[in-house]
TrEMBL record:
Protein topology in the membrane: Multi-pass membrane protein
Transmembrane segments: 12-32, 38-56, 68-88
Record-level Gene Ontology MF annotations: antiporter activity; monoatomic cation transmembrane transporter activity
One Pfam short name: MNHE
Subcellular location(s) per record: Cell membrane
Entry's family note: Belongs to the CPA3 antiporters (TC 2.A.63) subunit E family.
The organism's taxonomic lineage, starting at the top: Bacteria, Bacillati, Bacillota, Clostridia, Peptostreptococcales
Protein name: Na+/H+ ion antiporter subunit
Cited InterPro entries: Cation_antiport_E (IPR002758)
Single GO cellular component term: plasma membrane
């Protein structure tokens, strides 16, 4: 716990981060217990404080491109709410499009894999982007490379073009206050592998998954 408050590379305020964890745990205590007597609320405060002391240090994550340290639960909650409302709208719109394709004709299904680079420094930003893509019907995140390249499977060119417009990627960058080098890439180039090795590695992963499913 001392290391957390002494971390000079931490981007956010450590005391505010501790308060966020404490408040979240206390809220869970009150909601799950449904007892609002002073004695039980006091028990909840003590429990939330002790648990916060134990877990606060494990909620730090290092930056992917810098020496910065990020608190995994820290975000602009107003911007986060706006983003999730926008994401719900996109999910509903894509769900309608996918339903239309299923009910009308399979000719509109033309699956393809696309790659783009969104080199966030905060790992939480990459995680939210990957999950947002998968939550949106018509697109599924396949892999994320160390260089910040995302590999995504799309149902057809329309869904791929919608993703490659960069709207979702830039919204998440604003959410975490980052400036990213966003661009569409035709060939996957990773910092640790050659182009050929990356393609072979991805193929091997698919083969292993298929074997497990068949087994």
């Amino acid at each position: 716990m001392r290391d957390f408050f002494r971390d000079r590379h931490l981007v956010s305020n450590p005391y505010l981060n501790f308060l966020e964890v404490f408040s979240l745990l206390l809220l869970l205590w009150i909601v799950m217990s449904e007892i609002f007597q002073v004695k039980f609320v006091l028990y909840g405060c003590i429990s939330a404080f002790l648990i916060s002391c134990f877990v606060i240090d494990s909620l730090r994550i290092g930056g992917l491109k810098s020496d910065c340290t990020y608190f995994i639960l820290h975000a602009n909650y107003l911007k986060l709410l706006i983003y999730f409302l926008w994401l719900i709208k996109e999910v509903v719109k894509s769900a309608v499009d996918v339903t239309g394709i299923i009910l009308t004709s399979n000719d509109k299904i033309d699956p393809l894999v696309v790659w783009f680079k969104a080199d966030y420094d905060n790992p939480a930003a990459r995680a939210i982007l990957a999950n947002s893509i998968t939550l949106t019907p018509g697109t599924v995140t396949i892999d994320i490379y160390d260089s910040g390249v995302f590999s995504v499977h799309a149902l057809n060119r329309k869904f791929a073009d919608g993703l490659l417009s960069g709207d979702m990627q830039k919204r998440i960058a604003k959410l975490y206050g980052e400036e990213i080098d966003y661009r569409v890439v035709d060939v996957v180039v990773d910092t640790d592998y050659t182009v050929k090795e990356v393609v072979e590695l991805t193929t091997k992963r698919f083969k292993r998954r298929r074997k497990k499913k068949n087994a």
